[in-house]
Each structure stands twice: as structure tokens, then as C-alpha cells.
Specification:
Two copies of one chain form a homodimer. Chain A is an alpha/beta fold and 313 residues long. Chain A has two domains: 202 residues, Rossmann fold; 87 residues, UDP-galactose 4-epimerase, domain 1 (Alpha-Beta Complex). Chain A has nine helices and 13 strands.
Chain lengths: 313, 313
């Protein structure tokens, strides 16, 4: 099939591109390289089945010009930094909501009907539920990033209802692994490289979340796409375990071979305004049909630490 | 208190302005009169406690200039026509999502923290539930209008989580009554004035929804605002009965004194792409604390028909 990936030079998008090419599909990557990195797709540039377009999704005429004759659009482009919305409040409105609208409009004009979307567990906001199923409501995100994802979900769903689109929406756990450019693992490694004797940890370190290894994330995306055929197919995508922030700090110091590192907690239950301190996702909907994460949350974190330390691409 | 109402010259907004003035508050109405009507606020223009600003919410510098020193913002401005998104796909993105973002940004800059928002039952999309509670999920709207409301809810919720805003979000049933400028009642009356012998009814006429009279809607908004004090207070606002489209057609012909009107159904279960054909809202959350609609759905429809026929303002 002919696949179009927005954000296809980014962390998850570039892994998805690799897998789709291996599976024999043609892949076009559309990326402005704001968070993506050309090194993540370099190995595919000579492949005749691979096209790279450096362009911005906020440019509607450009995306309309490029999205033509594809079977499926995988829409993964977004601001990846949950925390930035605190200081740049329009970032997720633009990169999350307006960019998604432009993708949908371009698809509508090109009569392309299938869209796969990377949403996030942060749409649920902060809840008292021990484990969140897809049926949990109301979804009240506490970050602008979460609002961007929820707004995008709504637009995609509306295009399904109004223009007969079909969608696969995935609410991801924290995805980690090679090519990861941000998040707690990268932060800790950066800080410890600067000062290997102490580590500042945002919050109380008890924040506890599921971490999903990037190859499991890609396998889940494609499993859902292959096995579910409703108009709107919405899934949580997660392993069934969680890892605390302090445990991540311990694993990072272990993997870096550091000893006697002092952990300095900034305090409070959350890392920053808009951080959801504790959650778990109930992924029963997709696991019931046979998909499972191959790595636990701790295993995913440890492998991701090694990937980042060894600059694995 | 000093109240700011976006869309305050519109159908619901102007009734809310009347009630707040009667209750002794100062009221500023911000409206671009695209759907609002100056006749709806004319009787208040001499009131020293009333200010009218004709301006657009998509003009961020303008709204930033005007939103200052208010206690509460009632954000009711929106495209009111659910159906228009089918042909103007950017309408609800702009009037629903971007306008809401601008209101929130202006409030943040002015350090105003309380926002009351008119959402809609259409955020739920099409479901198999006999009656929808606020906890129903996932919310998968089938209209662009619904996507606009869901996106706005998400942004408001994110500003609560990130900037300590407090909100009261109401998911309205179909609101009807004096000053109603659109919807099935107005459509039927317009059609029958042109041709009193037959009436085209979109769909099969079995579409069945709750209709809430506008004064009940306003009393519910203010009841929730007074009685609930969480960070995010989200409610369904509805009576506990429903009315079919055919029943509305019958009541309109009765009230117009017409006999032997032929009903011509266009067929299909819904009026148009994006129309949710059947739903009921579970408003237990707010009724448990003592609010109730004074009119049933049928009573609300009949009174609204009379209001429109007698051009009541």
C-alpha cells in the first residue's frame, strides 16, 4: 500500500516508516524537521519506495499538493514536548489541532479516507481510576498538549461522521526507545553527563506511569489497523506495568555506571504544572485480540536508557 | 459581580444577560453580531450596568484589550448552526476552538480565572446508550460543531490544570425558546409560511431528542455556578423527556392553525450527515443538588413555537 506519514522523521514516525518499508509498502514522509531528525530516515533515502518531503503541516496549500493517491495517512506529527504548553500556549493549538485539521482537509480534497492517529493517555487528565479504559469519561486534560490531542481526536471523529472517513486512534502510554529526543530518560542522562554526582528530580519521584518501548508501540499501531474495522477504532496502547520516576533515576545511574549519586527532589506530587503524576492504562481492548507489549515498563525503560546512552539510531 | 458574556447578543447569551442584570450584576456583552442580534439586547442599552462591545473573538488583541477586571467570563459565542460544518469545515475550528483559545489567553493575561462554557450534548456523538451521563466515554462527535465543542472543553480544562483556572462546563440538550434563530422549529415555521400545505421533514421524523426551554437553560447555568465549586465542574443540562421531529411538526402545524398538511420525509434515520438521530442526557448530577427543568421537552417545544410565531423578544 501507499502510506503517508506526517512526522515520519520523528521518534515514533521514523520507526513506523522503517517497519512499513520492511513490510513492502511505499512510504512518504512529510516532516518539517522541527522535532524530527534527518538522521532517523537517512538509511531510507536511497530506497525507491521512500519519499521525503520537508514541509510544514500549517501550510495547507503545501499539504494539499502533496497528499494525493495514498491509501492511508499516519498522522504522527505534533509538538512532542508536553511541558512546553506552559510557556507557549499556542503551540499545541497550532501543531496539535490546526495541523490535524489541515491533514484532514487535504485528505478530504484528495478523497483519502483512512487516517491513523497518535493520541495520548494525557487526554484523560488526572483521575482517581487505578487503570483507565477507553470508555473513561469525561476526558479533562490538564496540559495544553492533552488539549491538542483531544481536539485532534474530535476533529478526526467528526470527519468520520461527516465525510465517511475511517480512523484508528491510539492513546499511547509514554513511548521510549532509540531516537527518543525528549522526556525523563533523556533529561536524566543529560543532567548526569553535566554533573555525575547529583541529579535533580522534578517532583517527589513517586510519579508512576507505564512506559512502552517504541517497537511495541509500532507493532500495536499496525496490529490495531489490521484487526479492527469499525468506523472509529480507538485504543489505549500500553504495557500492563508501570515505573516510578525514582526507579528510572536508579536505572539511569546504574546504566551509566555511576555510584553515590545524590537525588535532589524539587518536591510536590508532579514534575510540572500539567504533569499527570500517576496513571495506568487499561489496554484490554487491543490485548484481547492478541496484541501484547513484549517488554514490561521497567524493561522498556532500561532498553531505552541503553539506546540513548549508545546513541542508537 | 462584573460579568463578561461572549456571544451575549445571541440566543442564549442575551437571556443570560437579562437574568444577570436582574440579579444585580454588571454585564458586558462582547459579540460580533454574526449570529447575535442587536434587538436582543436593545432593552438593556440604557442600563448603566450594561456595556455592549461589537467585536470579534478571532481578534486576539481586541479581546485582550476588553477582558479586564471581570469576575467571571461566560463564554457562549460560537457558530450556532450544527449543520454548517458539512460545507464550511473551518467554521467550528475557528469559531469553536480558536475563539475559545483567544478568550482563555485574554483571561490569562488579565488574571481572570473563572470561565463558564456552553458545550453541547453533540460531543457524545452517536451511541447506543439510552441516556448519557457525563462519565460516558469516549466522546466521538460526528459533526464539526461537536468537534469544536470538544476541542474547546479540552482547552478550558487544560487552562484549569496549567494556570489554575476554574470552570463550569455545560453540555446542553437542544435549547429552544424566544430569540431562537435556527433549528428545527424555526425551519418548520419558515417552510410552512412559504407553503402551508406540505412540509418537508429531513430524515424519517423519528429523530428523538430532549428540548430544553431557554429560561431553564439559564437557570441551570447559574445553579451549577452557584452550587458546585470543584476546579472543573462539568454537567449535562437537560429535561428528562424527549420529543420526536414528527411530534414537533405536528405541534407547529397545530400552533399555526393549519390542517391537512402533508409531511414529506426525505428519509434515512438522520436529518443530515453529522446529525445524531436519537439521544437522551442523564442530568442526574445537577438535578441531585436541586435544579430541575420546569418544562418538559414537549412543553418547551410548544412554548418555543409560540415564541417564534409571535416574534417574542
Amino acid at each position: 500500500m501507499k502510506m503517508f506519514i506526517t512526522g515520519g522523521a520523528g521518534f515514533i514516525g521514523s520507526h513506523l516508516a522503517d517497519t512499513l518499508l520492511k513490510d513492502g509498502h511505499s512510504v512518504t514522509v512529510y516532516d518539517n524537521l522541527s522535532s524530527g531528525d534527518k538522521r532517523f530516515i537517512e538509511h531510507n533515502l536511497q530506497d525507491k519506495k521512500f519519499i521525503f518531503i520537508k514541509a510544514d503541516l500549517l501550510n495547507l496549500p503545501e499539504i494539499k499538493k502533496e497528499i494525493k493517491d495514498y491509501d492511508v495517512v499516519f498522522h504522527l506529527a505534533a509538538n512532542p514536548h508536553v511541558r512546553l504548553g506552559e510557556t507557549q500556549t499556542d503551540l499545541d493549538v497550532n501543531q496539535g489541532i490546526l495541523a490535524t485539521y489541515n491533514v484532514l482537509e487535504a485528505m478530504r480534497h484528495a478523497d483519502i479516507k483512512k487516517i491513523v492517529f497518535s493520541s495520548s493517555s494525557v487526554v484523560y487528565g488526572e483521575t482517581n481510576e487505578p487503570s483507565l479504559p477507553e470508555t473513561y469519561g469525561p476526558t479533562l486534560p490538564i496540559s495544553l498538549y492533552g488539549a491538542g490531542k483531544l481536539g485532534a481526536e474530535g476533529l478526526i471523529s467528526a470527519f468520520c461522521g461527516t465525510f465517511d472517513f475511517q480512523t484508528w486512534i491510539y492513546r499511547f502510554a509514554n513511548v521510549v526507545g532509540a531516537r527518543g529526543t525528549h522526556g525523563v530518560i533523556v533529561d536524566f542522562i543529560d543532567k548526569l553527563k553535566k554533573n555525575p554526582r547529583q541529579l535533580e528530580i522534578l517532583g517527589d519521584g513517586k510519579q508512576c506511569k507505564p512506559y512502552l518501548y517504541v517497537s511495541d508501540c509500532v507493532s500495536g499501531i499496525l496490529f490495531g489497523f489490521t484487526h479492527f474495522h469499525d468506523r472509529v477504532n480507538l485504543f489505549n496502547l500500553s504495557c500492563d506495568s508501570t515505573t516510578t520516576v525514582t526507579r528510572i533515576a536508579e536505572m539511569v545511574t546504574e546504566e551509566m555506571g555511576l555510584e553515590n549519586v545524590t537525588f535532589n527532589y524539587t518536591g510536590g506530587i508532579r514534575g510540572w504544572k500539567g504533569d499527570v503524576p500517576r496513571f495506568q492504562l487499561d489496554a484490554t481492548k487491543i490485548t484481547t485480540l492478541g496484541w501484547n507489549a513484549t517488554l514490561s515498563s521497567d524493561e522498556a525503560v532500561r532498553r531505552a536508557i541503553r539506546d540513548v546512552l549508545h546513541a542508537k539510531l
